[in-house]
C-alpha cells in the first residue's frame, strides 16, 4: 500500500493494539510466513494501534526525525548496529555527533563555553527517559540540599 493511501491514525485504540492473542499462533513458527502475509498482518493489526509520531498533524515528541535526512541517518545508524554512547564504545559514531552538536550550538549562538570544542562538553544519553532524569538532577540536588 502506498503512503498516500494510508489513513492517518492519531490515537490508538484505547485498550488494544488491535492484535488479539486468539489471532496469534500458539507457538513460534517453524517456517516463516511470506513477506506479503507479514506486511498485511502489520497493516491490519499493528498500524491501527500505533500512534504515528511523524504525522505532519501530530505536534509532540520528536518531529525532527520525520525528515528524509533523519530517516537516512537512522537507517545508517541502525545498519551499523553499534552502541554509540561514548567515544570508547564507538568513536566513529560519537565523534560526528560531537561535531554536529557544535554546529547546532553555533546556529543557536550559544557561548563557546557550551561547545565540545571549547571548555564545555556534554553527555550523550541513551534514551529520552535518561535525558529527562539527567536534566532534573541539578534541581533534585537543590531540593534535597545534598
UniProtKB/TrEMBL annotation:
Domain of life the protein comes from: Eukaryota
Known cofactor(s): pyridoxal 5'-phosphate
SUPFAM superfamilies assigned to the protein according to its UniProt record, in alphabetical order: PLP-dependent transferases
GO terms classed as biological process: amino acid metabolic process; carboxylic acid metabolic process
Molecular function (Gene Ontology), one example: pyridoxal phosphate binding
GO cellular component term of the entry, any: cytoplasm
Keyword Membrane part of the UniProt annotation: no
Record keywords: Decarboxylase, Lyase, Pyridoxal phosphate
Signal peptide boundaries: none
Record keyword Lyase present: yes
Family: Belongs to the group II decarboxylase family.
Protein name: Uncharacterized protein
Gene source species: Rubus argutus (Southern blackberry)
Amino acid at each position: 500500500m502506498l503512503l498516500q493511501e494510508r489513513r492517518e491514525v492519531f490515537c490508538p485504540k484505547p485498550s488494544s493494539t488491535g492484535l488479539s492473542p486468539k489471532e496469534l499462533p500458539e507457538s513460534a513458527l517453524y517456517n516463516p510466513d511470506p513477506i506479503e502475509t507479514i506486511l498485511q498482518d502489520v497493516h491490519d493489526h499493528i498500524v491501527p494501534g500505533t500512534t504515528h509520531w511523524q504525522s505532519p498533524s501530530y505536534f509532540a515528541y520528536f518531529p525532527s526525525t520525520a525528515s528524509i535526512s533523519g530517516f537516512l541517518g537512522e537507517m545508517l545508524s541502525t545498519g551499523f548496529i553499534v552502541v554509540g554512547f561514548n567515544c570508547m564504545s564507538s568513536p566513529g559514531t560519537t565523534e560526528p555527533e560531537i561535531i554536529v552538536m557544535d554546529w547546532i550550538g553555533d546556529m543557536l549562538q550559544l557561548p563557546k563555553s557550551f561547545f565540545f570544542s571549547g571548555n564545555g562538553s556534554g553527555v550523550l544519553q541513551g534514551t529520552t527517559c535518561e535525558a529527562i532524569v539527567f536534566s532534573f538532577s541539578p534541581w533534585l540536588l537543590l531540593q534535597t540540599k545534598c
